[in-house]
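Late entry, evening session. Most of the bench is empty. Finally got around to the prediction I had been postponing all week. Sequence below, unchanged from the version circulated by S.P.
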Amino acid sequence: MDAEHVSPPDAWAAAERAARASYGRLVALLAAPTGDLALAEDALSGAFEQALTTWADAGVPANPEGWLLTVARNRQRDVWKSPAHRATRPLDAGGDDHTAADAVDRRLGAVASIDPIADVDPFAIPDKRLELLFVCAHPAIDPAVRTPLMLQVVLGFEASQVAAAFAVPPAAMAQRLVRAKRRIRDTRIPFAVPDRRAMAERLPPVLEAVYGCHAIAWREGAGSLAGEAQYLAVTLAALLEREPEAWGLAALVTLSLARQPAIRARNDRPPFVPLDEQDPATWDAALIAEGEEYLRRASEHAGPPGRFQLEAAIQAVHCDRRRSGATDWRALRTLYLALDGIAPSLGARVALAAVTGRIDGPDAGLAALPPEPADGFQPWWATRADLLDRAGRSGEAAEAYARAADLADDVAVRDHLLARRRRLEGG
């Protein structure tokens, strides 16, 4: 094994990089033969624990992901071959003469004979994650947990991140995820891409999971995850070929990624700059052209545009400022009205009020704001603060900026809002 002797902190860093980049891929490969997500996660967790000690002594292997895959598969085999597991969890229904271990060997096939340390590259089988995404959208799984399950198991987010994305207490989300994994194991849901009709039925939560990956990456400034969300969205659209919402999501993620060069370049958080104050010359022209092409493909198919197509079109209008030097606010209002018609949400209505304020003045924007939400919706307060600021109502704007800052979960956004408040107060 080509490895370099490293200190324990370096071993920790290498394991952290592997977990961040490859956790979902590895779980998908481990769970594919049997559908036992909990066992796959346990085996991989044990492999990471072993890596911390082994890599500190023997060095980080040339292919850390392959090393982890080998160790985790060996741990799976130990469980499968244990007397308790063979007596209670046979892998093959129908009562043939094969043992559980024999069944596993048959399912792994030629893959089991490869030396993963030298040859297996989990990145070479990206469709395994897409298979697992569609498995998690199986009709037998509770619809409320399908997308959270994908985000945790396939895309590797912490349960707390998933809970925050869905505004659910972490303990409640953890219970939902555990129950879902047990159901997948106990009902023996097959790990295979369904036929095209079933894929269409299962597509919405899969799209939501990829969008969720994009949204979390955007919020947390995770450059690798932002690229990963774009890769998955484009791969999924190409796989389905004629699904306009899949192309719409590919366009949305790509156009959004084009406007965040700092996040693409590194994982530390740059200062927050509002969209209308950003320099379009810093945006990625190649990615903008790519996203516009995906949006064109989405529009080729008959039928009214869906949510992701409309959101992508909104991003395209913003990105067009790189070419024209101006924002077409009236086009944005038309798109937000259409979005509110097919996928009404508080966020879309707040954005519509902000756009109305740009076209008809801040007082009209304030009048268009929906009623104050009871749960403290941060974008509502940030938009209200900006509209009040533009209307010259400095005292009220300062209070709204303070409230928006209190609700912000992003330090850079909080600092920006507090700076605006200090400006109004003369600080």
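Two things to note before I forget:
Residues 329-427 form a domain with the Serine Threonine Protein Phosphatase 5, Tetratricopeptide repeat fold (CATH 1.25.40).
Confidence is low (pLDDT under 50) at residues 1-6, 90-126, 262-267.
Will write this up properly tomorrow.
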